[in-house]
Amino acid sequence: MKKHLLGLQSYGSDEIFEILDHASTFRQVLERDVKKIPTLRGVTIANLFFEPSTRTRISFELAEKRLSADIVNFSASSSSLVKGESLRDTVENIRAMKVDMVVIRHSAVGAPHFIARRCDTVVINGGDGAHEHPTQALLDLYTIRERFGEFKGLKVTLVGDALHSRVIRSNIFGLKTLGAEVTLCAPATLIPTGAETWGIEITHDIEEALTNANVVNIMRLQLERQSSGYIPSLREYAAIWGIDKNRVGLMDKDRLIMHPGPLNRGVEITQEVADSEESVILDQVTNGVAVRMAVLYLLAPRQKEEKHEEI
Ligand code: CP
Questions:
Q1: Distance from residue 128's CA to the centre of ligand 1 (Å)
Q2: E strand or H helix at 14, and its extent?
Q3: What's the predicted TM-score (pTM) here?
Q4: For the chain, which residues make up each domain, given as ranges?
Q5: Which of 47, 56, 218, when mutated, tests ligand 1's pocket best, judged by the most ligand atoms within 8 Å of its CB?
Q6: Can you name the residues that pair with 132 across neighbouring β-strands?
Q7: Do the two domains 13-132+286-310 and 134-281 of this chain adopt the same fold?
Q8: CATH class of 13-132+286-310
Q9: Does the beta carbon of 260 lie inside 6 Å of ligand 1?
Q10: C-alpha of residue 281 to centroid of ligand 1, in Å
Q11: What span, in angstroms and rounded, lies between the C-alpha atoms of 251 and 182?
Q12: Is the CATH code 2.30.40.10 the one for domain 134-281?
């Protein structure tokens, strides 16, 4: 296992499966009456959220508490950043406080790598700009494996804003590494230059992308970025690329509907599909806590032999 989790691009299948296997164990711990275990007692973790987050922030905090770690929470709006402090100075202060692990979300691509280079602490990327969101992709992979058991031959369609979505990028890296057949469907304006080198199918035709697919993972249309004219209107996006019941009907009968959240109901996904029996959107959230427990457990700076005895 690498020292840090900065992205899935550099993770091999053995490392990904090691995380998913440990997540299965922690998923069982979460079903117990007493969900707290002493595994990370004495380990201090700083959660540095420079960008808004609901799921990732709460999920990491819950995972850390379940593992009995000591936690320090930081949010940009209530920190000295508003007084003009740079990321570098914030990092120097964190280093001086000698935390063992850092979870960081930041709007700048490479912010987690910057900290990893400058501090001795273990760094976990909670989402950096439009680059990667590895724990989201790991929980997506976990949810797919829980249902289908394996990835080889599985048809997974990713729909949405690949230009800005770190979730799409991390999903593509993970799914490709594990052998899934990946199709990306988005308007041409929301597919980045260089996507043709990712080794996946790319189409602008939603019906073609969904036909016989086992999984559709629908990305949030990043409304805060749409003023730049990437799409004509939300109504048009919903009509051409939105996932409704009829489009779901084109998929394989054995199928999953996924979305990392937050959802724009009525834009990229209809209310009916989001709340349907085939939707595993809330299972993804539950699995996210177990996956993050696994990541924290495997990367915590402690002896592995000790860890195995304590689960
Ligand atoms: N899926 C996800 O990253 O959600 P948040 O932005 O709420 O953390």
A1: 12
A2: helix 13-29
A3: 0.94
A4: 13-132+286-310, 134-281
A5: 56
A6: 128
A7: yes
A8: alpha beta
A9: yes
A10: 12
A11: 14
A12: no
